[in-house]
Design brief:
The chain is α+β, with helices and mostly antiparallel strands and 215 residues long. It has a single domain, classed as Rieske [2Fe-2S] iron-sulphur domain (Rieske Iron-sulfur Protein, 3-layer Sandwich). It is built from three helices and eleven strands; from the N terminus they run ββααβββαββββββ. It binds FE2/S2 (inorganic) cluster (FES). FE2/S2 (inorganic) cluster binds next to loops. The site of FE2/S2 (inorganic) cluster (FES) has 12 residues, from loops.
């Protein structure tokens, strides 16, 4: 399991794409910057730490290890939300039927299409890498050197992506690409799929990050 804090990649051309804005579920609408593309690795690491220390005591406890409850009802289809868990950004993406369909047909291009490597709980070892296919939960940290990948939808015009890009995530630090289930493409620097943290449903529209049925 990757325990590295996300870092920004120094000096990349697509620096603005590195900034991962995360919106806490709190009503005060605070936003924080997980990683800043304009800083070097060490500076960006320093940027990432205050994101935890700026929490209230109860939020800090959650970020330090407690389960984090996430309301799914305000995430539109195709949208996403990022929450902090154990000091890491966790993405919750509501995938559309089109996004799920785009997971098919490129297994031969993936390094670990069946999620054989231990990067997810057993209940997420399936094609969608999820409990419910329409909700994808993953730690938003590249498995290469810990940068924060960006969402890269199908039909985007990022020059670092192929014309037949099915949609997913792109790490501009060294060019690793992941599909919309966080499965890494072959011959990329990232050695494994994105990590899926333990999680479980506590209602139709509510999940707990950091806790599963076995805990
Ligand atoms: S850190 Fe993502 S490709 Fe290197």
């Amino acid at each position: 399991m990757n325990t590295t804090l996300p870092i920004a990649c120094p000096g990349t051309a697509g620096e603005s794409a590195l900034a991962l804005q995360a919106t806490p579920t709190d009503p005060d609408k605070r936003r924080w910057l997980i990683a800043s593309g304009s800083a070097g690795g060490a500076a960006a690491l320093a940027t990432a730490v205050p994101f935890v220390s700026s929490f209230s005591p109860s939020e800090r406890a959650k970020a330090a290890g407690g389960a984090v409850a996430v309301d799914l009802s305000d995430i539109p289809p195709g949208g996403s939300k990022t929450v902090g868990w154990r000091g890491k950004p966790v993405w919750i993406v509501r995938r559309t039927p089109e996004m799920l369909e785009a997971l098919q047909g490129h297994d031969a291009e993936l390094a670990d299409p069946l999620s054989i490597k231990d990067q997810q709980p057993s209940y997420a070892r399936n094609a969608a890498r999820a409990i419910k296919p329409e909700v994808f939960v993953a730690i938003g940290i590249c498995t290469h050197l810990g940068c924060s990948p960006s969402k890269a939808p199908k039909g985007g015009n990022d020059p670092g992506l192929p014309a037949d890009w099915p949609g997913g995530f792109f790490c501009p630090c060294h060019g690793s690409t992941f599909d919309a289930a966080g499965r890494v493409f072959k011959n990329k620097p990232a050695p494994t799929n994105l990590e899926v943290p333990p999680h479980r449903y506590a209602g139709d529209m509510r999940i707990l990050i950091g806790e599963d049925a076995a805990t």
